Every structure is written in C-alpha cells, then in structure tokens.
Amino acid sequence: MYWLTTKNAVVLIPRWRSISFLLGTSLNRHFSPSAPPPLIRRSERIFCFKEKKLYTKPTKKHKQSKISLEEKDYAHVIWWKERMQICRKPSSVLLVKRLTFSNLLGVDDTLKNGSLKEGTLNWEMLQFKSKFPREVLLCRVGEFYEAIGVDACILVEYAGLNPFGGLRSDSIPRAGCPVVNLRQTLDDLTRNGFSVCIVEEVQGPAQARTRKSRFISGHAHPGSPYVFGLVGDDHDLDFPDPMPIVGISRSAKGYCIVSVLETMKTYSAEDNLTEEALVTKLRTCRLHHLFLHTSLRHNSSGTCRWGEFGEGGLLWGECSARQFEWFDGNPVNELLYKVKELYGLEDDITFRNVTVAPENRPSPLHLGTATQIGALPTEGIPCLLRVLLPSNCTGLPVMYVRDLLLNPPAYEIASTIQEACKLMSNTTCSIPEFTCVPPAKLVKLLESRETNHIEFCKIKSVLDDILQLYTISELNEILKLLMDPTWVATGLKVELETLVSECKSVSRRIGEIISFDGENDQKITSYTIIPNEFFEDMESSWKGRVKRIHLEEEFAEVDEAAEALSIAIEEDFLPIISRIRAMTSPLGGPKGEILYAREHEAVWFKGKRFAPSVWAGTPGEEQIKQLRPAFDSKGKKVGEEWFTTMKVEDALARYHEAGAKAKAKVLELLRGLSAELQTKINILVFASMLLVIAKALFGHVSEGRRRKWVFPVLTQCHSSEDKGTLHGAEGMKIAGLSPYWFDAAQGGAVKNNVDMKSLFLLTGPNGGGKSSLLRSICAAALLGICGFMVPAESAIIPHFDSIMLHMKSYDSPADGKSSFQVEMSEIRSIITRATSKSLVLIDEICRGTETAKGTCIAGSIIETLDAVSCLGIVSTHLHGIFDLPLRTKNAVFKAMGAELIDNQTMPTWKLIDGICRESLAFETAQREGVPVELIQRAEELYTSVYAKDSLRTDKSKSKHFIAPTVQKSYNVTDRQSHPEKEVVQSGSVEILCKEVETAVVSICQKRLTDLYKKNDILAPSAMRCVLIGAKEQPPPSTIAASSVYVMLRPDRKLYIGETDDLQGRVRAHRLKDGMQNASFLYFLVPGKSIACQLETLLINQLPSQGFRLTNLADGKHRNFGTSDFLETEMLVR
Length: 1133
Hints:
DNA-binding, DNA mismatch repair proteins mutS family domain-containing protein, six-stranded mixed sheet, MtDNA_mismatch_repair_MutS, 1133 residues, GIY-YIG_endonuc_sf
C-alpha cells in the first residue's frame, strides 16, 4: 500500500495502482510531435538526466524498487532548471549546485536529509509537488512553513530567507519561514511571478510516534492571495487586482488577445486589433502568464524575431521583455486548457465568456494616443485620469474610468453614461458612500468559504446601497441607467427587478446571521479578580460576529465556565493574596498576585516567599498547600514563580473547551452563509460593479462641476455612400476649449473655438500651442465619446469610430528602428484604420528625415486623409507643402496666431484661419539660453540663403458659444425613507434631527424673508433641509454652491458651519476621532455672505432653544458678512 495525494488530502491506495490513474487525464494529454514541448519558454533543447528514478519505501517481502520519472514531468523539470539558472544571490547559487534534476523537487537523495523513501516528509512533499508541479511548495511543519530542493532555492533568491543549516554542502537545500511571516513570504513570491501551493497540518492531538496528517489548504497566485483561515480573522485582507492568463494569436482580421481570469472563471476574446492597440492592452494590465500562439511565427522553423512588418516591431519588443511560452491549436480552447493545467483545475470546470460584441464600438486607443494624453501615466505628459476624478477617489473607480478611456463604449452606452451623469449633476438628495468590493475578492472568498464577518458587512453595505438607489426617486432613474454599462463591464445581463429582489433577500439573510455595530448583547466577560485582558483575548475571536440568537447554548456554556473559573480563582488564590497583603514587612517580604499568562492562555498565581516557615493553621495556609507549579502545553515547567491548582486548571480547561466550541459554531455559521451565497455570485458581482461605476461617475461629475466643464452634445455619425463625408452632425464644434490639465475654475487658460468639418492643415510658431491644441482636442473628443464632461464652454462631438493622435517619435534601438521608421510605422497604422468617422491628429509630420522628401510624404498623407474625409488636424513646419500641387477638396488652412509686442513677435495661442510661415525659431532658441553669437550667425545664414516670408496675422472672427446656464433650486426636497435598508439609528437621534431641522427652518426662513422683503425681491418657497446620513455623502449639486450645515455629533452636541465645498467639509469632519458616523443637515443659500450671516445667526439663537453647541465662540462674529455688502449681493442675484 502507498500513501498518495488527491486534490486536497492524502489517501491510501493499492500499491499496484498507477499514479497517473489518480492524477487524471489532463496530465496525460498527448501533444503533436510537431508542436513545441508544453509550457517551455522558447526552448527546444533536450536535456539528459543522470538519474530518472523515484525511490519508494520497499515492503518487507520486496527489495527496494525504482520508478522512472514520468514523461509528463520532463517539461516541468526543465522549467524549474531554467528558473535555477537565473538565480543570482551567492547563497542561492550555492544551493542550486546541490540539486539533481531527477525529480520534481530537485532533491539529491544521497545527501543528508534527502531521503525520498515512502513515509518520510520528503516523500510526502513530493506527492503534493506532483499535483502542482509549477508551484512553489510550502509545507507546514510545527511553527514553520518549510521548502526543500528547488523550492528552497526560490525562497532564498526571491523571499530573502536564509537556508536552514547555513550553507552546509552535505545537506539538501532547505529553507522556510515562521508561521507569522507567511503573508510576507507569499507576497514576495507572487510579486516575482511565482504561484505557491500551501500544505497545512491537521490541527489537534496526534498519537505518539505518528506523523500529523496534511492537506493542501490553498494556493497563492499573482493577483490571487492565499485566503485559508481568513474566516476566523478580525481584519480585512488587501486583495490585489486579478492578473489574467493572456494568449495572443494572429488571423486574417489582425491580432487577437484572449484573457482568462481563473478567479472569476471568465474569459474574453478580442480580435481585429492592430499591433499598437494590442501593445496598449499588454501595458495596461499585469499578467500572470503570457502565451504566444504559433500563428505569430513567420515560418515553421520558429524564427525568434517576429512581428507584423519585418523583423522586430512593437509587439516583438513588448513580448521579448517578458517571459512567455508558445502554444498551438484553437487559441481559446487551448488557452483554457493551459489555465486548467496551471491552476490544477478539474476538466469539468467551465469558464463564462464575457466578450463584449465589437459592433458599433470605437476602436481601442493606440499606444501613442493613450500615452500622449495621459490615459496611461507617462513622464512629462499631463495625466488625464487625475483631472477626471477627485483626489480622494481611488482604486476600482479609477480603474473603471481608465479602462473606459482605453476602450471607448458604443454610442448607446456612451449616451446612457452621459444621461446618468446629467442626472447626477442635478441630484439634490444625499447619496450613498458606494461601498466598493472587488468582484474577484467576492468570488474567491465565497467559493473558498473563507468570508469573515467584516466582509459580510461590506457585502451587506453593497446590497443596501443598491436598495437605497432604488428607493429614492431621484436616484432610481440613475440606477436604471447604470444597468447597461454594468452589463458591458461584467458580461452579466440582469433585470432591474431581479437585482432588487435578490439584493433584498441576500441583505436580509446576512442581517439574520451577522452581528453589526451597535448591538450590545455580546459584551466581553468581566470579573474583578480576573485580568480583563484574559477574557478579551479569549472571546474577541468569536463574539460580536454572528447574532447571539444562534449561539444561546454556547453563550450559556461560556458564561457558566467563566463563572466557575472565577469561583475557583476566588477560592484558591484570593485567600493567599489576602494573607500576603495582611503581612506587613520590609523589603524582601512575601509577594503574590493573580496574573494573565498570555503566552499560555491561562490565569495563574505568581508569587514568591509566600509559604510560611511554620504552619500554624492561619488563613490561607490550606490554599498554599494546594498550589503546584504551572506547566505549559508541552509539560514543561513555566517558571519558579508561577503556580496553579487542580481546581483552577479544571476550570481553565472547561472555559477553553466552551470557548472553542463557541468559536467552532461561529465559523460553521460563517462558512454556511458563504455556501448559501455562492448561488448568488452573479448578483453580487453585478451589484458590486454597479456601485464601482456609480462612484466613478458621481466622482467625475463632482470634479467636472468644480472645474466648470460641460456635457457635450454627442451625435451619432454615419457616412454618406456617395461622397464619404460625415453626416448626422455638422462636424465637431467646441467653444471655449481649454487644455484639460488647466483648472478653468482658477482661470489663466487660453480658450479656443474649434469648428471642424474637414481636415485642418495647421501651421504656427514654435511654442505657439499646436501640440497643446491637438492634445486638448483629442482629450475632449475622447471624453465626449465616453459620455464624460469636457473642458469647454459648449461642444458638439460626433461619436467617432476611432481617435488617433500621433505626436513626436523616438528611435527604438531594441527593434533596430530609427525615429523616422517608428513614425512611419505609426502613420501606416493610422492611414489603414482611418475612415470618414475617424478623428486623426498628427503633430509635426515627417520631421525626422530630409526636408524635401519628407515634405512630399507629408503632402501625400494629407491627400490620403482628405480623400478619406475624416476629421482631424495635421500640423507641420514644412512650409514647402503649400508649394506642392496637392489634390485636396476639403482641407482647410489653420494657424496658431502671433502678435507684435515691443518689436517682438509673441504667440497668442489662439487658433485662426490662414497660414503661418514664421516659426519663431530664433526667438525660441534665445529664450532657452542659446548663446547670442550662435543665434546671430544663424540669422546671417538664414538671410543669405532663404527668402523672407511675412507672417500672416489676419484673424477670422469666431462664433461665440454660450454655455447653457444651470438654474439651481434652493428648495431641496425632504429626505425619503428607505424601508429596505437596515439602519441602526436610535429613536432619540431621529427626534433630535427633527427638532434641529424645525428650529433651523424657523430661524433662517424668517431672516431670509426679511432680507428679500427689504430689497423687493420675490421670496423663495418654504426652506427645507437635507439630511446626510451616517454612511452617506452630499450630492454633486453642492459643488461650488454656498451652504449652511449642522453636524449632529454622537454626543448630541451640534456644530454649525458654512462652506462652498460641502463634500470636503463633511469628509474632514468625519476624519476626526469618534465622528466617523456623524450625520449632517444642510441647506443651500444664494451666496457666501448670506451663508456666513445665517451661520452666525444659528450659533447665537440655537442655544436659547435648548441645543448644545461646540462652536459657540464663532457666534461672536456678529457683523461678519452683513450690512450693505450682503444686500448688494442679493440685489445682484
């Protein structure tokens, strides 16, 4: 009989049974002889092994037998050998020399501690290793996680651990980490791209001279952490973004990328991609593994240098810097097989296709476009993402916005997003905090049944936020609009009523099991004679996690055991303490106290010199006789000063047993709830993603309002079959366009008007703003087709099928290409993809080659783009283009203006009609500190060779677009009730809120009415306040609006304030200790002066109505913001 591992346990099987029989058919898959070996990175070498044997423990009747290394393991051994060859640390290099690649562990059984006989720990680890041969194996041994062979070398090289036993040459490589450092070690390994298989010991007593049973408790992969035991923790686990397995292939339509997420059990396949778009996708995500299909090769011999156009190329350069492996066959099916093999998944595991149909969807951004507008962070380029969202909006919402910019949505989705954003901009009610939980985290924790009470509280918050959106009429329409964008993001189609119904039932179920903050029926046990730290440590690991109603029996047992422990300590220890206190003596007298021995989880008596020299039957002597030395769990004496009694030890054992039973019950309930919610995974993923989108869009609207951006008119363009021109919209019109990296609210930006119905040929001086204009137009167009606000006063933007921006190019020595070659490669991609629905922006075309031929190439490109009838701009300093006989029909000449100031020509950074032949090259060089002598000589050379051209300064009048004014209503609606959302709020707080609102309205309404009457202004309707609950935030309509607010503190005191940034003020208040759940009442007023006066008025009058204020001193500023200035402001308004 042999012991062998199944997926998660060690089982006993008949000796004659083949190992491959249990490992499944997936490991015996046959590969075509012509195909490269599986999972080998660019290697077709054949290695010779000195020894291809596995040794097993012989029975009494048979001699020791040898089992050949199975053929399926050859590729894995080669893979590990390649990893060992790149080790660089001296200690790990020495360890590698002691490896022998005759088994998956690389263990040399001739060295000390290297035995692989059946029944040994090494043999057991080898069985686990054979189950997941590409993963580092960590095996729990007591208080350490140990690794041997190649795995030990990996720990030393990448986790910074020292080898066990130093660098002795007569022992196999061994290394490990303490149990407390497991998370750090796993982070180090996964950060370097390794997957880890963790083997745990079965906890509990074991028979003497027997090895503890072990099982595979879980795995840690890049982007997928180890979660075993999390269900019993009282803290959250940082969950990284999932890292997909990616496969790249090539077909007649272009490149195809297949992305598989093992955690989510999903995959997507995008085809018809250009090389630039594909490289952009590779650079925007962290990969776990990269597989390249053999269709990328030029020929069957497997040339290493491959690309779309000749040797090298963007894709070749990107992939050659990574570790990749080749595969063949059907790209989707074969990649899914690779994923199952890598993660050790069963063959019947299915993956859901979440590919979004590409119909009517714009092309993904090219790499150059994404980097030049800061959609991908690039040094020296203003980051577009930073200006789209508030600084406090981070994480998942930022990732969603970035992905949306890189992969613009279809017209219908963009229109839906814009409509939702418009509703958000006008919302007057308070909005949820939008709890964001990574969908991958939800799936992994629920499937592994390791969701703890903290995560369940977050899940319930997600569901309650959905219900709040559904309940409030203003937010209900927004919820409906967000359904389709969420479908596109998740690939899940869910009906609104189904979503709401499931959210209600799941939220209710979680509320039935989980205990929430504010429930005070699970207090930690307390007895005066027992240190509180003891009960805190023993009971905090299970109390307050599930509702007490499910643990009444367990609570009763714990309470009885705690009382028995208290009685035992009182009877056995307290008389001794009383005796010692009664004995007054100088230094050196008896000492004793009852203490908590945290390391041993016990309460013992600690004392010295307390035994009487003569036993006289005095109080306490009987208890002293019962004392015995305290021993730890291993039977070792703790010390000379620690004592206990049999009664106390029995009471401690009873208490620990009751506590362990209660904790086990809690874990059982939590795991049971995880199992229940597994059937609701799709709903939870959908709800979580919907809140991520909602938070991203609310954040964008808030930031857009602050920057005074506007919503563009998004038109659906279509091309004419006869002329190929753009119809359905009058081109693109943007009035008051400002660079996206400038804050228009702070002023200082030069604004331009763009009325584009065809291709612009743009000229202008150096530093005249050509590049900035192209970036600004590109960013505005991209934001518009995504449904976002744009940095302008008004805009009409067609829904382009692609937006392509080409700026300056650099050479690529790795690809063997000059800067002009790189530029031509990008231009080729633009030309082949441009249609009449495209926006093409090219900056300073053909500047990397000889002027005459570069001018002709530029002219031909302009003719081609003009014939396509796309919108766009081509900027240039090649003024010879205007002397060429260009065959253009629609191209328009535009220039960046300049003016003469103090006999110096200075740019105005304004777009005008005409041609600018002045480059201001000499002036620019002089401003940058080039020596005057050099510039003077350059001017002489220029005068002697080139004719002087005059600068055209005629400026065409531009039409002014007036941004529509948004009327703000200062009469906010009452807060509506949310019956579906469980809010822990006492009746006294609700009463206080109503009392404060009544008093505020009474005081302020009278003052506002008097002011309006005094200035003969029509008084507003009745003033009403808006409540911001404990887990809510102000709506975007409060941005840049004056408001007066009242903070309702948990101690029932009030704080009165005024602000023009209510979101920031609420956030600042809640960052203070004890104010996290503070509620607020606010109302909007027409101007800061009125807000200041009403603030002072409330501070002075609310105390007279019985309210307690924390900022009474602010009421002394009685004359602040009043008198004539206030009345003038009201008249203006």
